[in-house]
Amino acid sequence: MPQPLNSKEQALFRLVVRSYEDKQYKKGVKTADQILKKFPKHGDTMAMKALILNAQGRTEEAFGLGKEALTADMKSHVCWHVYGLLYRAAKNFEEASKAYKFALKLEPESAQIQRDLAVLQVQMRDYPGYIQSRRAMLQARPQIRQNWTALSIAYHLDGNLTEAEKVLSAYEGTLKQTPSRLDLEHSESVMYKNSLIGEQGDYQRALDHLEDAAKYNLDRLAVMESRAEYLQKLGRNEEAAKAYRALLDRNPDHQAYYAKLTQALGISDDDVKARKAIYDEYSAKFPRCDAARRLPLDFLSGDDFEEAAESYLTLMLNKGVPSTFANLKHLYSDDFKKEVLPELAENYLESQGADASSKDKGEAAALYFLAQHYNYRLSRDLDQADEYVNKAIEKDPKSVDYNMTKARILKHRGDIKKAAEAMDYARTLDLRDRYINSKAAKYHLRNNDNEKALKTVGLFTRADTVGGPLVDLLDMQCVWFLTEDGEAYTRRGNIGLALKRLQAVANIFDVWQEDQFDFHTFSLRKGQIRAYVDMIRWEDHIRDHPFYSRAALAAIDIYLDLAAKPAENGVNGEDTDEALAKKKAAKKAKKEQQRLEREAAEKQAKQDPNKASSSQTDEVKKKDDDPLGLKLAATEDPLGDAVKLLAPLLQVCPKSLEAQHAGFEVYLLRGKYILALRCLRAAIEIDPSSPKVHEQTIAFRHALNQATDLPAKVLEVLKEEFKAIEPSEDLKKVNDAFQAKHKSSPPHQLAALRAQHILGEDKARTNKEVLGLLELPEIEFAHALEALELLQKWRSSEIETFRKAALAKWPQVTRLE
Amino acid sequence: MDIRLLTNADLPLIQHANLENLPENYFLKYYLYHSLSWPQLSFVAVDVSRPQKSPYDYPKIVGYVLAKMEEEPSDGIPHGHITSLSVMRTHRRLGIAEKLMRQSQLAMVETYQAKYVSLHVRVSNVAARHLYEDTLGFQNEKTEAKYYADGEDAFSMRLDLDDIRKQINEAQEQEDQNGEAADEGEAVGEVGRDPKASERQVKVAVGRSLGVGDLVEKDESKH
Description:
The structure holds two protein chains of two kinds. By secondary structure, chain A is an all-alpha fold. Helix content of chain A is 73%, strand content 0%. Among the domains of chain A are: 7-185, Serine Threonine Protein Phosphatase 5, Tetratricopeptide repeat; 742-817, no CATH class. The longest helix of chain A has 30 residues, at 577-606. Helix content of chain B is 30%, strand content 22%. Chain B has a single domain, classed as Aminopeptidase, CATH 3.40.630. In chain B, helix 3 (96-112) links the parallel strand 4 (79-87) and strand 5. The radius of gyration of chain B is 18 Å and the shape is globular. Chain B has six helices and seven strands. By secondary structure, chain B is of the alpha+beta class. Chain B has helices spanning 11-21, 28-37, 96-112, 126-135, 162-177, 213-216, and strands at residues 2-5, 43-47, 60-69, 79-87, 116-122, 139-144, 154-160. Chain B has a seven-stranded mixed β-sheet, with helices on both faces.
């Protein structure tokens, strides 16, 4: 039971609560202390004080006091509630939920605790628990529509569509009259119910409901789209066609409508003429519509294609549209189209030259198109690309686009240094455009110039952000910069800052996941249910975004290196150049850290203590105690850190080859053979011909042959599940056979060489064969860079020899220098 | 290029496009605030023909319009506001921005009975001003001094949406005249039967302690 207070202290206690809510933390603590002076064991006050301490960032103290409060007053729902809130803030949702439940047992009528518990449950995706909570909340206040909607959502998320629909209908049954047409909440509720019926596959009923209840719904687009879909599903093609035509009139630039209309009209995919006729109809009707002109190029072939492509290209080039190539390059997966398009551009160019009245605009656009064509992966000829882009630049020397492409061409040559210079020049041609600024910064990063990159982006970040451009980029969750910055630091061997940036990306995803929290209640109030459910569904797999996997995989690579290093150091023990360089870098980093700390201390000292900080409230912004990532790099458990990034990746991206490969490496090094095998088998499933699959299969058999202390049960499972290579086989021979089989393929050769290293093959042989890679006709400089990285990792004696030989072959490639 | 309604899964790449292109940036929660409050109003342009690089590719966003309704309009008139509009430099001159804006404006009238739409534009942004003034017909209302974080002034522009309302009503009337047979979804409007409906002021339960307080109060000028 909460202990009783005098009326004076009661008033003070209320003040504590209000101070907390108003974020007046100092005042809150002061007031709480006033009460505690008189009632030192007053649990609720201690609890409130703990809550405030926590908000001030004094987490440990808060937990200590929170526990003390509970000891003082085990029967107080406030103490339990606060205890739950502390855990909730620490993101320990399991414990938070337990504490809330205790609190609720003590105070079953508390709407606040019930709501906090419910929000936690949906955040944790504990749907049965959420249903229970929402049912209790509905029973407590059935007059509020939100409570009905919320219970319906709970059932929906739990996969129980019929129950979800029933709840909505039950509420509708209580309505004495239909709400106004302009009632947003009702309007959305109708559409939500309709989507529930549709999701059940009961299209007739969904259509009837739509035409009846949603006739004048406020969300017109949703009504029209659903109606068209239901009609099509019900086979009412004539009406479906009409419905899709109505949608096309509304938005002729939405591709899916054309496909659906074609389908509704019963036109088969082979009937290219009929398909094209539909698009022609809409391009005539909507002269400014791009889709109707562009899309037929996807399915037309032969002369039809040539004709349509010519008219499209001519139109675009005449207008001087700079995005023409970007809009057409996807056609290049078709060899014929890849041939035809540049021919058409050449013809256009010639006709321009002959026609004296022609405007330069079209000619330059055509030159630009061809420059991009020869720079594109599938049709690359960099000399030609250069020629065209130079001609284009001659026509318009100040064009950002042309100069940007020139930089791209240099990048493809491997001349990253000159590419960065060229991109930076393009930037100077339009200093007000952030797009070209971003590109220039990116190229500086590719050139490992983190400092210049930051300075460049800093021209557009908010000048008033305390801590400079980087803090602004972090605040604004600028994933691209953090990732590229981290990758550049990786190449420079600055592991601390590399991990710092890559982990920052992982942290951003934590924030994005946390962002949902407020919307569980917000969306109920706003009433936009379908959008909310869409958000929940997306958040369920948020980390399958390439933004996450790219950063996570890069960080995992670093952790793998860190985990492998001590062992390798132990073997040769001598101070290699690399080790020396590392030591030097660490020393430099430490100095830098000391400098930062000194500056921060000075700044603090200079601050006028009488001046309030910029914000009125006492909210604290946590200080970064590891700005250079030294602590991250000094991790005792690199593989444990790697697993933290890996686990969500394997969960949401099981079909990613890179994720499975990385998972194998991590688990093998950790001695988790069964988990490693699971990744290997998943990789084989995805792409059995991946060179890495070969390498890892060898590595796995080799590891098993070496392992002596495996439990019998594990051995049994492995024997049963891993049959790719029998234990009796000679792994070196298997590897040699693979190598011989894929003689001309650089990626396969690289995999075989890595396998050789794993198997402890004679170093002289491996070294020689790495050098031999340069003779392969198919080798590209990217392969050479990979090989060089391998030699460096192995601390081979041939690093210099290889580097020089490769540089002789590709003198422009910056990273070989 | 595909023009369609924004979904939540698009948000990271919308944020990316914004960060690459514009100096006024927002954290993801602010985008969520838009997509969960007015899901009908924001649109994206997507490069759909791009071949997938992995099974986990997200559609590449080459342009977007992020729009909202003014939560508590000072003039008491329901109106929309363009929070951010951007098209990647590589995809300009295809008319994408205009198409995005038109879709958004239509939904503003249909769903929220917006009377006009407002926006801010940098005084120096000639290309954007051309789009708003010449192509879309916005009027320059006033100059807001030092609106942007870097000290630049903004033009505060607005576009009356009466024409869209009229078109919707006409379409609706035509449908109603056509009787039963026309009741087949070609409608683009939802009023019409009640001639007063379009004039009726809508009371929308917004604002006030909506939980995501920090967001609601966010003033773009601070960006």
